[in-house]
């Protein structure tokens, strides 16, 4: 089982790259220490908007559509997969109790649909992407579009 990745799986990487291309910034595999004492590591975390995104593998999280039941060592795998699903539900409840929004996506969900789901959840949380107008008079950045350190913007890094 050493070859099984906990982070940076292909579906997770595809989702992260798509979100990054849209201008969203996030933390990956970020440990959240919840008030209940639980520690949870979502695949993608938007800390400012308290949004946790999990990209669940069909085998490991017992997908009803694509999850397979192993025939060898059923005595081990059956209870293990059930415990994985139970742990997911407990983590979801603990996150929601702490005010987090939880998005769980299956690895087989098309990337466009996954991105739409995450962007919709972020919009519901009131997130803005880089380059979108926000609270500083509709300007994308406080320095009126000038690059940082440009003397014309009044932002002198040497001061």
In words, what does this structure look like?
By secondary structure, the protein is α+β, with helices and mostly antiparallel strands. It has two domains: 10-127, 3-Layer(aba) Sandwich (Endonuclease, Chain A), CATH 3.40.960.10; 133-159, no CATH class. Helix content is 32%, strand content 13%. The protein is built from three helices and six strands. It has helices at residues 10-21, 74-97, 111-125; strands spanning 27-28, 32-33, 39-40, 44-46, 51-56, 101-106. Strands 1-4-5-6 form a four-stranded mixed sheet, with helices on both faces. Strands 2-3 form a two-stranded antiparallel sheet. β4 (44-46) and β5 form a beta hairpin. The radius of gyration is 20 Å and the shape is globular. Mean pLDDT is 82; it is low at 131-159.
Give a quick rundown of the structure.
The protein has 159 residues and is of the alpha+beta class. 32% of the residues lie in helices and 13% in strands.
| Structural classification | alpha+beta
Number of strands: 6
User: For this structure, what is the CATH class of the largest domain?
Assistant: Alpha Beta
- Give the count of helical stretches: 3
Low-confidence stretches: 131-159
In angstroms, what is the radius of gyration? 20 Å
Q: What's the overall geometry?
A: globular
Oligomer: single chain
| Cα distance spanning the termini | 54 Å
Classify the fold: give the CATH topology of the largest domain.
Endonuclease, Chain A
The amount of beta strand, in percent, is 5-15%
* Main sheet properties: 4 strands, mixed
Name given to the CATH homologous superfamily of the largest domain = VSR Endonuclease
The helix content is 25-40%
The SSE order reads HEEEEEHEH
Number of domains: 2
The largest sheet has its strands arranged as: 1-4-5-6
CATH architecture of the largest domain: 3-Layer(aba) Sandwich
Mean pLDDT: 82
């Amino acid at each position: 089982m050493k070859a099984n990745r906990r982070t940076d799986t292909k579906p997770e990487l595809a989702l992260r790259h798509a979100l990054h291309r849209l201008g969203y910034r996030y933390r990956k595999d970020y440990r959240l220490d919840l008030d209940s004492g639980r520690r949870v590591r979502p695949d993608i975390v938007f800390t400012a908007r308290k949004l946790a995104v999990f990209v669940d593998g069909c085998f490991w999280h017992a997908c009803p559509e694509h999850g397979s039941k192993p025939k060898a060592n059923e005595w081990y795998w059956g209870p293990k997969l059930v415990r994985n699903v139970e742990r997911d539900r407990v983590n979801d409840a603990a996150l929601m109790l702490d005010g987090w929004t939880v998005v769980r996506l299956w690895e087989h969900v098309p990337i466009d649909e996954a991105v739409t789901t995450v962007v919709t959840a972020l919009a519901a949380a009131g997130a803005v992407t880089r380059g979108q107008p926000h609270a500083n008079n509709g300007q994308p950045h406080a320095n009126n579009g000038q690059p940082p350190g440009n003397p014309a913007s009044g932002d002198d890094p040497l001061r």
